[in-house]
Specification:
The chain is mainly beta. 0% of the residues lie in helices and 45% in strands. The N and C termini lie far apart (35 Å).
Length: 174
């Protein structure tokens, strides 16, 4: 399922599985709303937002995907709340390359074979009350790397990860 070059739209209460990619929202200048979806066993990512602004992603489960559970690149002013990312082959929730000024609240990322929640080259985000645990490999619960600057982490919980609970590298003013 892909929304491309569109305005606003929503996908809710859907199950998407066994494809190359799960749900994708690409080049949408207006908001998109994803609520209550189960996305699993896709070859690449479960849920992907790329160059999107003002979206809401709430109460989705993304698991057992070939790379990422949730992957957001170039996404701004969006909200991710009460989502679950688990058993993904890499990162549970990834904010990448200019995913700035977003809010992540009460998400859970566990048993991923990489980082639970990763911010890479993404700034001015607010992470509150997220939980990461039992992420595998040589990875971490939450990472801020590659100039992930000026992010605020408040009341997050990270435990039983293979490496550090929270890891900051080459990033400032967090």
């Amino acid at each position: 399922v892909v929304l491309v070059n569109g305005g606003s739209g929503s996908i809710s209460s859907s199950t998407v599985h066994n494809g190359y990619k799960g749900i994708g929202v690409v080049n949408s200048p207006s908001s998109a709303i994803l609520t209550g979806n189960s996305v699993y066993a896709n070859g690449n990512y479960g849920i992907n937002f790329n160059n999107v602004s003002g979206s809401t992603v709430t109460a989705n489960n993304s698991y057992g995907n070939g790379v990422y559970g949730f992957y957001f690149a170039g996404v701004s002013s969006s909200s991710l709340a009460s989502n679950n990312a688990f058993l993904n082959a890499n990162t549970g929730i990834q904010l990448f390359a200019g995913a700035n000024s977003n809010t992540l609240t009460s998400n859970t990322a566990y048993s991923n074979n990489g980082v639970g929640i990763a911010l890479q080259g993404s700034s001015n985000n607010l992470l509150t009350s997220n939980i990461t645990y039992s992420n595998l490999g040589t990875n971490y619960g939450i990472t801020l790397t590659a100039s992930a600057n000026n992010n605020i982490l408040n009341a997050n919980t990270s435990y039983s990860n293979t490496s550090f609970g929270i890891y900051v590298n080459n990033s400032a003013s967090n």
